[in-house]
């Protein structure tokens, strides 16, 4: 198909669905501002990989082996099942990324391809619930690993304070030196994937290859149960964090080519790295020893290689890893207030836009102090909610980010459903226009739905709906007042 036909098809796609909206949509995805193109394809790849690959993967091998009763082949299958959402979700969102580079990333896709009321609710859920929740938790985890690495104790308040200090510093360098933030994202991603690759190589070269055939498994003793499939849902959270990468589209060089490429390639690279680590550590230590060591299995690898003094190295690795994840999420969140203000979807939108314009004119930076302040308020509110849940033990063995992640997975289904129209119009092939969105929907329902079915999480789901309802009522009141 020619480039002209592609353009015509994408316009037809927008017209077809926009007719159901109560408000007009722009005919193209575009941003009114022209921020400098400071980020490369490498940064987009590192942002997706850097957010997704947090500290959790280093401590998931034992959970997977417990669920599969020591079967490495079943563990590999579990990781593949868990990756369905990110791989096929990324392919589905790449269809939108090819059609524009508007400010806001996925919320811009929602505005241009979903009915206005639904798009607005989606934007609020992503910008005001999802990103602040995972950003706040990641900053707290930075505090956890900083305290472990530097011997500052394990007091929750200390961990939270260290996390908030990191949060403020991270906002500062993202606002003042956005290019430095991109470099940090690239460097931290390189550092965090190194142990995954190294452990994979160790397992292949020095490990026991028999584990790949299931040797050492106790699955026969447990019967032929398929209960292990349910355990794939928690593992899928190790793959979350890819959707915020679209927020840097206006600042990404050749974004209509590079962002779809990043959304397609990065999920596959993440799966390969996770499998390399899981198979490697299982082959090097043995499945039963990984289960026995639990979260200390990576420390055991370092002890075997370098002696007892190396036992704390995994804490430093995890610290760098989660710092990169937090930086990537905050990098995206800081751009959200401006993106919401462009459509009057946040209080004091005009004041925020004037602040952004003045800041851009005087400094050339795209993130204003006002936008950063709004992002910080949202992060602190999410941190307060996290403190309440942890100190009152309202979410045993969990935190508010898991609910927000599941909420976001289910919300993204709206864009996956809309992606079918690209296949129907012929602007996308059968695989990307039909198969990929269908698998992304199934993966999101399986992972997101299973997480939200736990009764202890229902009050927080109600809270999120109350927040969205309040914003909806505010918007309608503000619009009627202006009229």
Fold blueprint:
Layout: H1 3-18, H2 41-52, H3 61-67, H4 72-82, H5 84-97, H6 106-113, H7 116-150, H8 156-176, H9 178-206, H10 219-222, H11 232-236, H12 255-285, H13 287-293, H14 297-306, H15 313-333, H16 336-341, H17 349-363, H18 369-391, H19 400-425, H20 430-452, H21 458-482
Helix pairs in contact: 1-19, 2-9, 2-12, 2-15, 3-13, 4-12, 5-12, 5-19, 5-20, 6-7, 7-8, 7-15, 7-18, 7-19, 7-21, 8-9, 8-15, 8-18, 9-12, 9-15, 12-13, 19-20
Explained architecture:
The chain is mostly helical and 483 residues long. The chain has one domain: Up-down Bundle (Amino acid/polyamine transporter I). The chain has 21 helices and no strands. The protein has helices at residues 3-18, 41-52, 61-67, 72-82, 84-97, 106-113, 116-150, 156-176, 178-206, 219-222, 232-236, 255-285, 287-293, 297-306, 313-333, 336-341, 349-363, 369-391, 400-425, 430-452, 458-482. Helix 2 crosses helix 12 (255-285) and helix 7 (116-150) packs antiparallel against helix 15 (313-333). Residues 1-33 and 219-224 have low confidence and may be disordered.
Oligomer: single chain
CATH topology (level 3) name: Amino acid/polyamine transporter I
Element pattern in H and E: HHHHHHHHHHHHHHHHHHHHH
Which strand-content bin applies to the residues? Answer: under 5%
Output the CATH homologous superfamily. Answer: Amino acid/polyamine transporter I
Q: Unreliable runs, pLDDT <50, ≥5 residues?
A: 1-33, 219-224
Give the name of the CATH architecture.
Up-down Bundle
The count of DSSP E runs of length 2 or more, i.e. the number of strands, is: 0
CATH class: Mainly Alpha
Largest sheet, in brief, is: none
């Amino acid at each position: 198909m020619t480039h002209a036909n592609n353009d015509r098809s994408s316009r037809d796609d927008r017209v077809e669905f926009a007719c159901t909206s109560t408000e007009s949509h722009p005919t193209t995805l575009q941003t009114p501002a022209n921020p400098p193109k400071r980020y490369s394809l490498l940064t987009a790849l590192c942002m997706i990989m850097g957010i997704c690959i947090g500290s959790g993967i280093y401590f998931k091998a034992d959970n997977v082996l417990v669920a599969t009763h020591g079967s490495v082949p079943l563990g590999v299958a579990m990781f593949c099942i868990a990756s369905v959402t990110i791989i096929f979700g990324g392919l589905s969102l790449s269809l939108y990324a090819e059609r524009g580079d508007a400010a806001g990333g996925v919320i811009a896709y929602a505005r241009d391809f979903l009915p206005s009321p639904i798009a607005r609710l989606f934007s609020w859920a992503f910008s005001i619930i999802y990103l602040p929740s995972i950003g706040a938790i990641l900053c707290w985890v930075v505090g956890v690993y900083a305290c472990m690495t530097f011997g500052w104790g394990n007091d929750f308040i200390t961990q939270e304070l260290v996390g908030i200090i990191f949060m403020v510093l991270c906002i500062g360098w993202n606002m003042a030196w956005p290019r430095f933030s991109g470099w940090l994202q690239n460097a931290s991603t390189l550092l965090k994937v190194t142990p995954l690759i190294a452990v994979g190589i160790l397992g292949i070269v020095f490990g026991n290859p028999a584990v790949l055939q299931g040797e050492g498994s106790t699955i026969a003793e447990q019967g032929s149960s398929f209960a292990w499939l349910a355990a794939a849902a928690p593992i899928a959270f190790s793959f979350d964090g890819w959707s915020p990468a679209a927020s840097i589209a206006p600042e990404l060089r050749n974004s209509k080519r590079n962002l779809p490429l990043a959304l397609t390639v990065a999920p596959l690279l993440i799966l390969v790295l996770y499998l390399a680590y899981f198979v490697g550590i299982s082959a090097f230590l043995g499945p039963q020893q990984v289960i026995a060591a639990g979260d200390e299995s990576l420390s055991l690898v370092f002890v075997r290689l370098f002696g007892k003094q190396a036992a704390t190295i995994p804490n430093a690795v995890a610290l760098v890893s989660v710092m990169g994840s937090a930086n990537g999420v905050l990098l995206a969140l800081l751009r959200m207030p401006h993106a919401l203000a462009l459509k009057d979807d946040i209080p004091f939108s005009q004041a925020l836009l004037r602040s952004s314009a003045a800041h851009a004119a005087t400094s050339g930076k795209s993130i204003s102090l006002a936008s950063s302040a709004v992002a910080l308020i949202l992060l602190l509110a999410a941190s307060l909610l996290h403190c309440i849940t942890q100190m009152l033990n309202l979410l045993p063995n969990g935190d508010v980010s898991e609910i927000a992640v599941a909420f976001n997975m289910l919300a993204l289904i709206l864009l996956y459903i809309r992606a079918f129209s690209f296949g129907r119009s012929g602007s996308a092939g059968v695989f990307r226009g039909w198969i990929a969105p269908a698998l992304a929907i199934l993966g999101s329902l399986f992972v997101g739905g299973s997480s939200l079915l736990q009764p202890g999480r229902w009050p927080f789901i109600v809270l999120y709906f109350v927040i969205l309802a309040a914003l909806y009522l505010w918007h309608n009141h503000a619009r009627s007042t202006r009229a």
